[in-house]
Amino acid sequence: MNSRDPRRGHTWAHWSLSIVLHLALVAVVAGAWFWSRRTPAPQPLAIQGSVVTTAELEQPAALPPPEPQPVAEPEPEPGPQPQAQPEEEPQPLPEEEPPPPEPDPAQLQAEAEAARLAEQQRQAELQAQREAEERAERERAERERQARERAERERQARERAERERLERERQARERAERERREREQAELARREAELAAQLEAERQRQAVRGSAQARQYVDLIRATVERNWRRPATARVGLSCEVRVRQVPGGTVTNVSFGPCNGDQAVRQSIEDAVYRSSPLPQPSDPALFDPDLIFNFAPEE
Predict the structure, then answer these.
(1) What residues does each domain of the chain span?
(2) 33-71 CB burial, b ≥16 within 10 A, e <16
(3) Per-residue pLDDT tens digits for 6-55
(4) Residues of 165-182 as b/e, b for ≥16 C-beta within 10 angstroms?
């Protein structure tokens, strides 16, 4: 494994710095000299740099020589004067670059080992990072799977609860319908039984009313009402009124009404009062002869 020698880079840096400092020094000296000469047409100077070592840089820089004092020159005679030629600076010889030091094999091996260990550390960190990312991805996938399973279980539970609710409602409707039909059938049976009982009672009453005992029972009631009747002044001869009496068991009168009647209002009121004065009415010898809606003809002259 190739490795760059750091000492070689430091040597080149020192050399470069030495060159720059010498060039700056030469430039300062040349500028001072040209300023002291004040020549009308300064000629360019050939400046060459030299390579210095680190030891030379660490030594204190040499001070520049003192500037020469200007000497009064005699007035030039009129006429053309020869132009002065600038003196040429001596050119320093370039120093030879020292050969780079030979690399140390032990140091190269140590640097290679350090680079190998750093690469192993980097690969281990990358592997750990990949494993952490894969573990996080697996955990995320597991959480998502568990969330989906939980959502599926909740959905199934809601559907099961909904089915059970619908089943309960259906059974409740069927039970309510069945109970309604049973009530209707029971009510119909009750009504039919009541109607049959009423028909049977009416048939018996009709049979009883046509009997001699029934006629005797009605005549007894009519005679009782006639005895309690107080004849009004407007009652005429040949009075005849159909009287309808509603009574409860025991003979208590609850209502009195009239059918065809040739008497006026006073006569009807007197007959009604007579019926209420006769309450409770006489009871038949046979309970089967009792008629809650009794009808008889009131004709006291007969």
Answers:
(1) 1-64+92-98, 106-182, 212-298
(2) beeeeeeeeeeebeeeeeebeeeeeeeeeeeeeeeeeee
(3) 455 555 566 667 777 778 777 777 777 666 665 555 454 444 555 555 55
(4) eeeeeeeeeeeeeeeeee
Q: Nearest 10 degrees: CA dihedral of 174, 176, 177, 181? A: 140
Calculate helix-pair angle for 212-227, 265-277, nearest 10 degrees.
110
For residues 73 and 260, the model is more confident at 260
Decide: residue 72, CB within 10 A, 0-12 exposed, 13-18 middle, 19+ buried: exposed
Nearest to 294 by CA among 253, 265, 260: 253
Quick check: pTM over 0.90? no
The domain made up of 212-298 has a fold known as 3.30.1150
